[in-house]
Hints:
The chain has three domains: about 25-170, Adenine-n6-DNA-methyltransferase TaqI, Chain A, domain 2 (Alpha-Beta Complex), CATH 3.90.220; about 170-220 and about 370-413, Bipartite methylase S protein (Helix Hairpins, Orthogonal Bundle), CATH 1.10.287; about 230-370, Adenine-n6-DNA-methyltransferase TaqI, Chain A, domain 2 (Alpha-Beta Complex), CATH 3.90.220.20. The protein contains ten helices and 26 strands. The chain has about 425 residues and is of the alpha+beta class. The radius of gyration is 28 Å and the shape is elongated. The protein has a five-stranded mixed β-sheet.
Amino acid sequence: MENCKLVPELRFSEFSSSENNLLKTYNFNKIFLFSTGKNIKQGEASPSFETPCVRYGELYHMYNEVIKEIINRTNIDKSELCFSEGNEILLPSAGEDPLDIGSASALTIKNIAIGRTINILKPQFSNLYSHIFVSYYINQKLKRNIARLAKGVSISNVYNSDLKKLSINLPTIAEQQKVAKFLSSVDKRIQLLEERKEKLQSYKKGVMQQIFSQQIRFKQDDGCDFPEWEDKKLGEVTTKTGKKNKNSTKYPVYSINNIEGFIPQNEQFVGVENKAENYDISLYKIIYKNTFAYNPARINVGSIGYSGELNEVIISSLYVCFKTSNKIYDKFLAQYIKYPKFRKDVIRNTEGGVRQYLFYENFARIKINIPSLEEQKLIADFLQKIDNKVSIAQTQIDKTKEFKKGLLQKMFV
């Protein structure tokens, strides 16, 4: 143990002036007790079982730095399990990506069964460290160090004997607890924002089902009903479009998936005279505002995107592009293509075995049930307002995560 000359760039004021609040460096093997969990197989865990448990794969996907609620349970006899005391730091001891192994989670709950392939760190002494603080510290400062300790080819492994070689810089326990509490409050805000986003998405999914199945109908301004909906083929209300790019202007490159539509690829073409060696500009199409495009083959066949306000972007020439006619409101169709029933209709019109294709002739034959233009606009505007709220929630999530990232970079040394 030795005093650390480095100090955090960002620190609470009450801890920044006193000489007694210098950081100290500790070797892992001097402050932790090391152990591993006991085997809980995938089929032996379910939310409907009795004993709450944590398995190593869940540390990658279900938990962050702090575990306050348990997702899965097991029915294995308790005598065969390893239980928590609520002061553990858990790290996966195996994974396909070495960086995953450095994903620490502070377990704050007692009597939780801990699965095998998990390295368990517990305190040797009381009041030396906050396991929540240390969990954040490991994920920010030691993840790459742990990845370098990994052994193996297809599956990487890090054992407790490897972790004992690490060291950590700790402030006083009081400062650790305040930092941990503050970072936990930031995580709580992220959680609440994500829950709000999920509720909005769930609400939209339900209301979209009711609207497009006509369980919910909009009214005219005078209270009268709109005309009945009509079945139309896509080929009757859309027109095939799109041309290969031969322009020398700089354009961003986009791809398509069925969830997000048009997705930027962080690449650019600068025209024939400056094109990248690995690309041929003639193999790409340039599209403009209010254009639809779908993937006719291979991975994500039938995925459809709507460019909206995107203008002058490049997509693969393999994509089929089309625009709406004056019989259908483009923003209504942009919502309709997200309707699960429509997605099933698209898949039913693909051809082929291992490699499926969605020819435009088949696509154009797909029927959709559409209301009058006036009702289309009301529906599109209503659903777009929900999308806007989802987008606002996602922006808040992204900003809060970026804020947290900045804190983590400045609060640990």
